[in-house]
Amino acid sequence: MSGPSGDCSMQTTQEIRVYKRRWQILILFVVYSASNAMQWIQYSIISNIIMKYYNVSDYTVDMTSMIYMITYIPLIFPASYLLDKFGLRWTVITGAFGTAIGSWIKVLSLAPDRFWVTFVGQTVVAVSQTCILSVPARLAAVWFGDNEVSRACGIGVFGNQLGIAIGFLFPPMLVPSKEICDIEQGLQRMFYIVAAITSFVLILILLLFKSAPPLPPSIAQAEQREKSESSKEVKNFLSSIRRLLSNRGYLLLLFSYGINVGTFYAISTLLNRLIVNQFRDGEEDAGRIGLTIVCTGMVGSIVCGILLDKTHKFWWTTVGVYICSLLGMIIFTFTLDQNVGIYVIYITAGILGFFMTGYLPVGFELAAELTFPEPEGTSTGLLNAVVQIFGIAFTPLYRYLLNIWEEDLWANVALCGILAVGVLLTILIPNDLRRQNAKLKA
């Protein structure tokens, strides 16, 4: 293959070219993804304040986070079909439009008796998420060359993590834990800022985002284009789902990936409770610790993406990062229980975040390897659907364990045990790198 902006010939009739515009498309997607993800945890991270203002239970506040998981499961297949049939541009426009509309609905919820309005807005934003989570692997494959696909996927996932980081950091800063009128003013600031940002992102996407380059950036993508052009979309989509569900390695990855990310969802949703239980008036610390988890995870995503591009050791990297996620959870569990000081919690939470959220693009890329030449949007979409199921199961389970045991230690030990099962399942995944084999044969 020629350089980043050159052309080359291949044994098929399809010409290969990598375009400089790929980085603009990727950065725009990162901003778009962040604008949606920052709303996932914006209520739960200040759950005690939201409970006071809207006079609702902690379970009801947690539902504003879980609605992201609940809506994803039935809608991922229509969203994956939308991505396969209409391409990246229309999928991203649909998601950006829904995110902006949901954000403006929240602006109308500024009254203590309007929790239902804010929940409607959150639901619209959550539905729009289905047009985001499956995109990074597809965008990386469609726009980037063989030697930078994993890196691009890691940066694409970085957008979701960036949004979660913003969602952890700013709500505790913008919404004070004071009188009702002060809380209302804080919520007003937060809702208007988010609505303005999502509207601006929608305009940028309408003007600048493109579905695919004129020529494919890699041999693997050229083969996939030729296959998709000769197939009927609906029949091909359903056949792809059947093939994925009969792939043993992919099924093992579905469960192990779901365990890892579902555990992360449970910890993130209940982080306010964990920290406030240990440190009085710790709302802002909870937000900053969540920020630390996600920021170190962003670094982990990029590091793992570069490592995969350099070594192509997809199976070994996945197993190694998963084991480190388990070790990070064990360290976090016992430092949190020992009351060693808030700054130690920042450090151990950062270690946990580096590996647990750094694992996200690694799982995406291993899925693409195990399932090639199936569309990346379908394989990652199904992967994310299973994640939501585990998130829905683990979050109430974690809350229940925190309620029945006086100490948080045993609830966290239970999560460690669940992650250990995920490590075992990951080790059982066969090292079947089909995308790499196709590149070697070409």
* Proportion in helices: over 70%
Helical segment count? 18
Sheet with most strands: strand arrangement: 1-2
- Sequence of secondary-structure elements: EEHHHHHHHHHHHHHHHHHH
> Could you tell me the number of beta strands?
2
Terminal residue distance: 12 Å
Structure class: mainly alpha
Instruction: Tell me the fraction of residues in β-strands, as a range.
Output: under 5%
Looking at the structure, what is the overall shape? Answer: globular
Compute the average pLDDT: 83
* Biggest sheet architecture: 2 strands, antiparallel
Low-confidence stretches: 1-12
Q: Rg from C-alpha positions?
A: 21 Å
How are the SSEs placed, and which strands pair?
Blueprint: E1 7-8, E2 16-17, H1 22-37, H2 47-54, H3 58-107, H4 115-128, H5 135-143, H6 149-174, H7 180-208, H8 219-229, H9 233-245, H10 248-269, H11 271-278, H12 283-311, H13 314-337, H14 342-356, H15 359-371, H16 376-404, H17 409-427, H18 434-441
Antiparallel strand pairs: 1-2
Helix pairs in contact: 1-6, 1-7, 3-4, 3-7, 3-16, 5-6, 5-16, 6-12, 6-15, 10-15, 10-16, 10-17, 11-12, 12-14, 12-15, 13-14, 13-15, 13-17, 15-16
Summed up:
The protein is an all-alpha fold. It has helices spanning 22-37, 47-54, 58-107, 115-128, 135-143, 149-174, 180-208, 219-229, 233-245, 248-269, 271-278, 283-311, 314-337, 342-356, 359-371, 376-404, 409-427, 434-441; strands spanning 7-8, 16-17.
